[in-house]
Amino acid sequence: MPISFKLSFYTTIIALLSFHQVQSQRLTRDELKDTIFPSFSIYKDTYFITGVPTHTGISKETADAKYQISFKQLITRHTLPFNTQLFITYTQKSFWDVYAFSSPFQEVNFNPGIGLGKPLFNNDDKLVGLTEFKIEHESNGRDSIYSRSWNSISLSYHTRISKKTLLSIKTWFPFSYKSDNPELIKYIGYGEINLVHNISNDLQLELNAKKGNQWNWKGSLRSRLIYSIAKRTNQYIMLEWFNGYGENLIAFDKYRSMLRIGYIIRSTDLQLLKPAQLR
């Protein structure tokens, strides 16, 4: 598949789940417009981390760096039917053999998407969650036997399940992937669960889990300890441990266990779902 790729996205009406009754901040619908849906913002976390494997020997060839950039742009400030917002996203994740001779890149994964977002309120007009419906493409921009790509329709839901814990659930329906990597879903499955728990005002624990669609242990578990650099900022120091399959596309079927540390800028999109007394 060539680096230059084109997708046609079709926006559809979002089907929403029932309201989840949890505690929330005193935030009205009007106040959301420039906060949880700013015109331009970080989408997924942006970071630069580096580290070593724990499943094999440590050397210049096995140590690496991983970094990610991600943003979201509203297409229009006008609210669409069913109180939704239309946006586009772009995420790029790179794996860099920075310590090896000539410092080559292992792989770069490109992930554009288009979606609808809808805030969810309870009967008191307080924010209790956020739902996103998206169409996404992900590929490594390579051709021949090294090509990896897949497309998906996804639905995600974000809410607080306690004063200190944020839950995110995402499920996807994959399509147009079997020509490049027919075994992919055996390793990444049909969804993921993400939990972020505030241990203290300065320290967070994040857990992310995926499970392949087979009756085996193929999947992944990613854990992160995230420490705030300063108050009232979205900049942190992060320690990450990835264990499992599917960290990148080129080697989705190869087991990896990587311990990395570095700098992260966290997305602020879901901060409004946190209790007011915590940051």
TrEMBL record:
Q: Whose protein is this, by species? A: Gillisia mitskevichiae
Membrane association type: Multi-pass membrane protein
Q: Membrane-spanning residues where?
A: none
GO CC annotation terms, alphabetical: cell outer membrane
List of residues binding Ca(2+): 102, 142, 147, 180
Q: Which Pfam families does the entry mention?
A: PLA1
Q: How does it assemble?
A: Homodimer; dimerization is reversible, and the dimeric form is the active one.
Enumerate the GO terms in the molecular function aspect. Answer: metal ion binding; phospholipase A1 activity; phospholipase A2 activity
Checking SUPFAM superfamilies in the record gives: Outer membrane phospholipase A (OMPLA)
Instruction: Classify the source by domain of life.
Output: Bacteria
**Would you tell me the protein name for this molecule?**
Phosphatidylcholine 1-acylhydrolase
Q: Catalytic activity, per the record?
A: a 1,2-diacyl-sn-glycero-3-phosphocholine + H2O = a 1-acyl-sn-glycero-3-phosphocholine + a fatty acid + H(+); a 1,2-diacyl-sn-glycero-3-phosphocholine + H2O = a 2-acyl-sn-glycero-3-phosphocholine + a fatty acid + H(+)
Q: Which cofactor does it need?
A: Ca(2+)
**Catalytic center residues:** 137, 139
Q: What is its EC number?
A: 3.1.1.32, 3.1.1.4
Family listed: Belongs to the phospholipase A1 family.
| Protein keywords | Calcium, Cell outer membrane, Hydrolase, Lipid degradation, Lipid metabolism, Membrane, Metal-binding, Signal, Transmembrane, Transmembrane beta strand
Cofactor binding note of this UniProt entry: Binds 1 Ca(2+) ion per monomer.
List the lineage, top down. Bacteria, Pseudomonadati, Bacteroidota, Flavobacteriia, Flavobacteriales
Give GO terms for biological process.
Answer: lipid catabolic process
Q: Where in the cell is it found?
A: Cell outer membrane
User: Which InterPro entries does UniProt cross-reference here?
Assistant: PLipase_A1, PLipase_A1_sf
